[in-house]
Amino acid sequence: MARINENYRKLQAGYLFPEIGRRVKAFQTEHPDAQIIRLGIGDVTLPLAPAVVQALHAAADEMGTAEGFRGYGPERGAEQFLLDGILEYDFAARGVTLEPDEIFVSDGSKQDSANIQEIFGPNCSIAVTDPVYPVYVDTNVMAGRTGEADTDGRYPGILYLAATEENGFVPPPPTGPADVAYLCSPNNPTGAVASRDDLARWVGWARNHDAIIIYDAAYDAFIQDPSLPRSIYEIEGAEVCAIEMRSFSKRAGFTGMRCAYTVVPKALAGTTASGERVALNDLWMRRQSTKFNAVPYVVQRAAAAVFTPEGQKQTREQIDYYMANAALLRDGLGGAGFTCFGGEHAPYVWIRTPEGLSSWDCFDRVLGEAHVVTTPGAGFGACGEGYVRISAFNSREKVEAAVLRIRRAFAD
Ligand SMILES: *Cc1c(COP(=O)(O)O)cnc(C)c1O
């Protein structure tokens, strides 16, 4: 008899995006002529940059030659040409020195942020912000680190740190200990970005408590102010307390291509029951070499093209395009009396629902009257209630139309 992992039964039904899909479908069926604009799900919309496509073609041709064919990748999975680009453009350019074997290239930050908890003990305590990217929570539930969810959908065993207007949606570290804390900056869903001081406080806390920070920087390329940190390793001491995740998904339109990387500095250690210090880099290497067989060569070539001068320029233009959309959303809705947050260093605008509407009521009203799909903040956690997320990932025309329609829907 195959007993199941009953921790899976503790998960709330995959509620948010299926429920949005259900409501949008029902609305479209009732109003077949409505031109619905989707600013809900956080997926990119622009095609791949020409430099990326060129590299992809060239690599595909190479694979079709006797000399260029590649089977399994190198031992650690990552090709040197990609590591070189990452080390130079993402770190050295920001004053951060890392070693190639501290970088683990993968097929996505979703998987990395889901899998990283495997290298920690079953009794580690977990801290997350609320609202939160659901992957951090659900994977710890699956691993058995929590009890059953309460009526707010919160799990005992997880410490939730409220991201509020008062703290600028960047919660300070907890006053007490936690073993592993997940941070996401620029943030999905709130669009908030952590300052150097914010991160310094977190690093100080982690070092005091011998905790590990999992830093998800999937949206680092959207940071507009060069004085804001792009990497947590720009903060002194982070290399002994932080793992960082970056992705090509949002920065270069790779959501369908799949390429990301995780940094596990060699100075990072956890402890055994007997107090022995063990390098997390060795554990993650062991995990990846046992359960993962690298990113396709053609995809690594395509990702490396992001670091060429043309690739940099073209992907920068894509980011600028989305950020101009974000500014239109912020200014257009802010000018009409909505209270907007985020959207300055992230492709998401976090809007306080007007007239005291709940997240879902606001979602329904925007869908019903403006035919625009948003994401109810409550779907990301109890503290997301009273907010909706609007994404800047769409065409200029659709974003402009969405702003006008939402303004009209709430005009009186
Ligand atoms: C989109 C996103 C990612 C990236 O996921 P991939 O698997 O690399 O596509 C990671 N974290 C957050 C918070 C995201 O929104």
Q: What can you tell me about this protein's structure?
A:
By secondary structure, the chain is of the alpha/beta class. The chain has two domains: 13-42 and 310-409, Alpha-Beta Complex (Aspartate Aminotransferase, domain 1), CATH 3.90.1150; 52-307, Aspartate Aminotransferase, domain 2 (3-Layer(aba) Sandwich). 36% of the residues lie in helices and 15% in strands. The chain is built from twelve helices and 15 strands. The chain has helices spanning 16-30, 50-63, 80-91, 109-115, 134-142, 196-209, 248-252, 280-291, 297-305, 309-334, 359-370, 396-409; strands spanning 37-38, 103-106, 126-130, 158-162, 180-184, 212-216, 242-247, 260-263, 269-271, 277-279, 339-342, 348-352, 372-373, 375-376, 387-391. It has a seven-stranded mixed sheet with strand order 2-8-7-6-5-3-4, sandwiched between helices. Strands 11-12-15-14 form a four-stranded antiparallel sheet. The chain has a two-stranded parallel sheet with strand order 1-13. The structure holds pyridoxal-5'-phosphate. Pyridoxal-5'-phosphate binds at residues 42, 108-110, 133, 184, 188, 216, 218, 247, 249-250, 255, 260.
